[in-house]
Design brief:
The chain is of the alpha+beta class and about 210 residues long. The chain has a domain of about 140 residues: Roll (SH3 type barrels). It is built from 7 helices and 10 strands.
């Protein structure tokens, strides 16, 4: 497949896949803060932040599968490493929720990969423990100490091969440099009408209403 399995002693690289990394889930509306007397108080994060000092809090943490986003030079020397969560593909890409036929999968995996910059597709693989189609979700990032992650290499399942790694690097760049715009702005009234039939709720620009 598109994966390779490095030796445990090999250094960290972009595209390394880990299992069991901590993803912190926190609500800004209610956070459990531990007092010096070990009591628990429920506060809004806005109130905690206004005090401008560190606090001890109880937060939800779940183990997730994640892939290294940091470039190789940063993975060798930086204080922290950035990764993103790996999730089931059908949870990330809404167009494939009911997809089953191979022909349909081909269309989604190839065409949507060119249109949707928010994910990177990862095919099933027994060695990676991916029992279904998965994807790296660029919007769900995790920051981990580099030294800590180096000590966690026994939980590294593998990494992307050279072809996949080059594509992964470009996907990351495309995601973070993408230019957001309303693609219908140059359509005339007739074209906009056709566009709205497939995209209900699309609001015309002033020049399209004249």
């Amino acid at each position: 497949m598109i994966y390779t399995v490095p030796k445990e002693i090999e250094p960290l690289e972009q595209g390394d896949i880990f299992r069991g990394l901590p993803l912190v889930e926190i609500s800004l509306n209610q956070i459990s803060v531990c007092g010096e007397d070990e009591t628990i108080a429920f506060k809004k994060w806005q109130d905690v932040a206004s005090e401008d000092k560190p606090v001890t809090a109880i937060v939800a943490v779940k183990p997730v599968c994640a892939i290294v986003l940091s470039q190789n030079c940063d993975a060798l020397r930086s204080r922290d490493i950035t990764l993103c969560e790996i999730r089931p593909f059908q949870e990330i890409e809404g167009k494939c929720k009911e997809t089953k036929a191979p022909k349909k999968w081909v269309s989604i995996i190839t065409q949507q990969a060119r249109l949707n910059y928010k994910w990177y597709y990862l095919p099933p693989c027994e060695v990676m423990k991916f029992t279904s189609k998965m994807a790296a979700d660029f919007s769900a990032t995790i920051r981990v100490s580099r030294i800590d992650l180096e000590g966690f290499r026994n939980r590294r399942l593998g990494r992307l091969n050279s072809i996949a790694s080059a594509h992964f690097r470009e996907r990351i760049a495309e995601y973070f440099r993408r230019y957001p715009y309303d693609e219908w702005y140059a359509l005339d009234k007739a074209e906009l009408s056709e566009y709205q039939s497939e995209h209900p709720g699309t609001e015309p620009f002033p020049w399209q209403s004249q």
